[in-house]
Amino acid sequence: MAYDDLPLGPPLSAPPPPPRRASAASRWIVAIAAVLAVGGALYFWWLTRMPARPASPAPTTATDVAVGTVRPSRQPIELPALAASDALVRELVSTLSRHPQLARFLATDGLISAAVLTVEQIGDGKTPAVPLKVLRPPMRLMIMGTDTGRIDPASYVRWEADVAALTSVRPTEAAQVYVNLKPLFDEAYGELGHANGDFDAALVRAIRMLSDTPEPAEEPVLMRRPAYFEHSDATLRSLRPVQKQFLLFGPDRRARLRTWLAGFAAALDLPRG
Predict the structure, then answer these.
(1) What is the pLDDT confidence band of residue 22, given thresholds at 50, 70 and 90?
(2) Is residue 2, in this structure, part of any structural domain at all?
(3) Buried b (16+ CB within 10 A) or exposed e, 119-145
(4) Residue 266, Cβ density class (10 Å: 0-12 exposed, 13-18 middle, ≥19 buried)
(5) Model pTM?
(6) Residue 176 and residue 85: Cα distance in Å, rounded?
(7) Does residue 177 sit within a domain?
């Protein structure tokens, strides 16, 4: 029967009402029930006025350790030996970008070892001229003057292909490939004398080295020397070699590289600051 069909009055054939007089025991039972009902109603009202308590967190398990990290998990791929890893590296990286400058680097041998040496040298403040020899720009550095002058804007363009090649890869996708190949990176890092080393530490050092390169208030002035150029500003002259090289990229390309490196570090949850 639906609630709307319930009768509002007593049934027509209801039994006669009980006697009006009740015993003393009955009156006490009714009084106690009334007190309990009123007390229960007050208690329920008090509960509704209490602020809600946050739910207790569920117990964590071993699989919950990585909750909250954006670092990608390693995908189940079979890794070859380090010495035979070039084919796999080319296959994985070529799916991320078809930039011709990146293809030039992928055509060389010992890719992971070259990448590890590059990162190691940058972290040490050195210019990675040998492992990145294939990416060296064909044009030479020029200044707006004979012996002293600001950098010729055309010299900044020398590095456009290299910057465009790296930034053509999404940092999150680069992070996934790195995680998949990380055992090989760690092995190559160990061959440089870092026994049981974690290559993440080398990445952090290299990114910090470039990120800490100061931004000059004005375009740097260079002085020509017999076989090289030197900054006229003593502060810039005291920088590490790779930082001086980084200044030759120009402000726009430095900003693009810093943004990419920050995204790559964030995708791997690498320590920053």
Answers:
(1) very low
(2) no
(3) bbbbbeebebeebbeebeeeeebebee
(4) middle
(5) 0.73
(6) 17
(7) yes
